[in-house]
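Exercise 3.2. Students should predict the tertiary structure of the chain below and write it as structure tokens, then compare their answer with the key that follows.

Predict this chain's 3D structure.
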Amino acid sequence: MSDTITASKSELAYAHIHDRIVHHQYSPGYRLVLGTIADELRMSVVPVREAIRRLEAEGYVTFERNVGARVAVPDESEYVHTMQVLSLVEGSAVAAAAPLVDAHVLAEARRINEQLRQLVEHFDPHEFTRLNQRFHTVLFERCPNQHLLDLVQREWRRLPNLRDSTFAFIPTRAGHSVDEHEHIMQLIEAEADPLELELFVRNHRLRTLDEFLDARHPAAETPS
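Answer key:
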């Protein structure tokens, strides 16, 4: 019974810390003091420590000697490189999957995209990112080339925790992304040339990357 209680509290602590990280209440570099978090949640440090270990395994938290647990500072170069590779392999996978994407699959993709469109009105970047990944997965998971599919899935897994906050940096990108999703589905329905579909999916991914980089590194204003 005690193990069950500890596990339940660990889940509660995990959800508490994870939510604050992805919504930027705990910013990159923020020190996670186990005792303070345990007091806030009215529990011992044991389940908090378990939650933080889980977050460390997922890349949200790092441990530093003589400092302790901190919110991970995202590796921007890792994100950029992963997005570049993902644009290539996912574009190819969606083009290969297109002949196998039937009306049922498209209906599911449109249902998810409609949820995304509704989220644009009351923006939740974490939920938007989660559903965005689900939308893309519905389309590329029909790829008949298992080697290519493995590459796509590996790159999605390699995206660092910055993935959860990408749309927080570029909220205006969300609406454009939803519109582009609809165009991807229209290309599939129209049985468009595979290369046209592949390039559109590739550029869809790269536009998100470009806007993210522009937001992170705004160009200096030219003196008048």
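Discussion points: Residues 220-224 have pLDDT under 50 and may be disordered. The beta strands are 31-32, 61-64, 68-71.
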